[in-house]
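Ticket #4471: structure output looks truncated?

Reporter: J.K.
Steps to reproduce: submitted the chain below (168 residues) through the standard prediction queue, then opened the result file.
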Amino acid sequence: MSLSMYQASVPVFVRMFGNLSAILDKAAAFAEAKKIDPSVLVNARLAVDMLPLSKQVQIASDAAKGAGARLTGSDVPSFADTETTFPELQARIAKTVDFLKGLDAAQFDGSESKEIVLTLAKGEVTFKGDAYLLNFVLPNFYFHMTTAYAILRHNGLDLGKMDYLGAL
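Returned output as attached by the reporter:
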């Protein structure tokens, strides 16, 4: 049995967003327990030239919903990127997961060979669906998920690898 484009995307995204949601719950509880303004964590960065936690969540969301939409020929949902609190980031994750769960596995059939054209800062890039998912979307998604984890860990949140990986 071969792995479908659906199996390589939607369940992966949904699972990781569940893990990120649990991490954000821990971060909110950490801020409350330590009497830290939650906005300090939401706006935290690993380095001055890196994006803050809020943007890491937004970009991970954009990667996942964009992939689901482009691979199925659906419209990419547009979210405003205005989240500034943990509850707003959680709502963003929930909207993304709801969109992904609304996609049917059959909609992904044949998407491995579908032409995907993206307009990036450097210009247009054309992918076949499988290369788009495996070589662009998933690495980008995991980069931003990992960076969100690392920002919170760097700021004192007691997290371990299993928080990132979730239940096996």
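Triage note (M.O.): checked the attachment and the full token line is present. The mean pLDDT is 96.
Status: closed, working as intended.
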